[in-house]
Structures are given as structure tokens and as C-alpha cells.
Design goal:
Number of helices: 7
Order of helices and strands: EHEHHEHEHHEH
Number of domains: 1
CATH class: Alpha Beta
Bound molecules: adenosine-5'-triphosphate, (3R,4S,5R)-3,4,5-trihydroxycyclohex-1-ENE-1-carboxylic acid, magnesium ion
CATH superfamily: P-loop containing nucleotide triphosphate hydrolases
Cofactor: Mg(2+)
Structural class: alpha/beta
Strand order of the largest sheet: 2-3-1-4-5
Number of strands: 5
Pathway: Metabolic intermediate biosynthesis; chorismate biosynthesis; chorismate from D-erythrose 4-phosphate and phosphoenolpyruvate: step 5/7
Oligomer: single chain
Radius of gyration: 15 Å
Enzyme class: transferase
Pfam families: SKI
Catalytic activity: shikimate + ATP = 3-phosphoshikimate + ADP + H(+)
Shape: globular
Low-confidence stretches: none
Distance between the termini: 9 Å
Helix content: 55-70%
């Protein structure tokens, strides 16, 4: 069984994924962490030194590698993973349990403003343009996120509540 969490930066994929894997006693993998370990470089450094196109190529390669592993896993992917190539198709073929962690724009902006520096795509956006940038980016990406088999809101709820709701959705 694979449970794959997708959603925008800051939506809570890693936080929810870790808590879910603990409850289910299933291994947790985060694709960003996997890429950093395999490339021996942080995501920030990969973007800076090799560019986004290189990152996206590697992201798809490592996604395929993880999806081909015959193990049970809760996998959180990067915010952009489902939006490039046919990654969302690969994700949905690998499991009936792909889950879009959907989080309100205002909540996303609050979370991301605090953690901007770790995320290369938003690190340089001016504060006065931040909300509009995220709104547009999220709108463009929603087409891909909405292809997940399930959807769950992650705002104004505790991590435990969201995990409980996800467990009820699993097939
Ligand atoms: N239900 C929740 N209640 C309160 N805070 C939350 C909740 N879910 C996530 N957070 C907080 O939101 C922030 C972003 O969460 P997280 O890093 O898990 O997102 P992500 O989707 O993995 O982001 P990225 O795509 O950038 O890796 C973290 O500081 C986390 O603690
Ligand atoms: O939304 C995105 O495109 C990204 C999200 C992060 O998880 C990382 O994968 C990287 O910073 C790119
Ligand atoms: Mg994450």
C-alpha cells in the first residue's frame, strides 16, 4: 500500500505524512528529502547551482524510483511534483490513495511568509506581492492537484484530526 500526499508548498504534506505514517506504523518518505540525500545537496542549492529544469528532471526520476519500490509507504511529494510531466498520472497509477492536502490561501500565506527562505520559488517575492503570487500559482496548480483520488482540508484543524479524516478515506 502506498499513500501519496500532494498539495501546495506549506499545505502540510510533510507534517501530516509523518503523523499518518506513525499511526499506521508504515514507513514515511518525503520526496524532497529523498532528492536531497541522493543528490547530496539541498533543494535550494540544486535550484541555485543547476536550475529548475535539472531539478524537475531529477524529481521525476526519483519519483519513479520511489514508486517502483515494493514497500508500504506514506510518501509526501514536493509542492510542484504533480504539476510536471505526467507525474500525477504516475502517482495515480501507483495507488488508489493519492490525497490532495488542500489548504486555504490565507493560511498558506501565513505559513509560507514565515518559512519563505527555505523555498526557492518564493524566497524572492516581495511581501506586497506575496499573496497575489501564491493565489495565481495555486490556481494554476489546482488543475493537477484536483486529479488526486481524495481531497482533504488542512486548515483550522489539528494535525490529529486531519490524520483521522484521512484514515477514513483510505481504500
Ligand atoms: N493542521 C495544522 N495545524 C497547524 N499548523 C500546521 C498544520 N499542518 C501543517 N502545519 C504547519 O504548516 C507548516 C508547513 O507544513 P509542511 O512543511 O508540512 O508543509 P509541506 O506541504 O510539506 O510544504 P513543502 O511543500 O514546502 O515541503 C509547518 O510549519 C507545519 O507545522
Ligand atoms: O512547489 C514547488 O515547486 C516546490 C516545492 C518544494 O516541495 C520543493 O520540491 C521545491 O522547493 C519546489
Ligand atoms: Mg514538505
Amino acid at each position: 500500500m502506498k499513500i501519496i500526499l500532494i498539495g501546495y508548498m506549506g499545505s502540510g504534506k510533510t507534517t501530516i505524512g509523518k503523523a499518518l505514517s506513525k499511526q499506521l506504523n508504515v514507513k514515511f518518505l518525503d520526496l524532497d528529502d529523498y532528492i536531497e540525500a541522493a543528490e547530496k545537496s539541498s533543494i535550494n542549492e540544486i535550484f541555485k547551482n543547476k536550475g529548475e529544469v535539472y531539478f524537475r528532471k531529477k524529481e521525476t526520476e526519483y519519483l519513479k524510483e520511489v514508486l517502483n519500490r515494493k514497500e508500504n509507504v506514506v510518501l509526501s511529494v514536493g509542492g510542484g511534483t504533480p504539476c510536471f510531466g505526467d507525474n500525477i498520472g504516475l502517482i495515480n497509477e501507483a495507488t488508489p490513495n493519492s490525497i490532495y492536502i488542500k489548504t486555504d490561501l490565507n493560511v498558506l500565506c501565513d505559513r509560507l511568509m514565515k518559512e519563505r527562505d527555505e523555498r526557492p520559488l518564493i524566497a524572492d517575492i516581495a511581501p506586497e506581492e506575496f499573496q497575489e503570487f501564491i493565489a495565481k500559482h495555486l490556481f494554476e496548480r489546482s488543475f493537477f492537484y484536483n486529479q488526486a483520488h481524495h481531497k482533504i482540508g488542512n486548515q483550522y484543524k489539528s494535525v490529529e484530526d486531519v490524520v483521522l479524516q484521512i484514515r477514513k478515506l483510505l481504500v
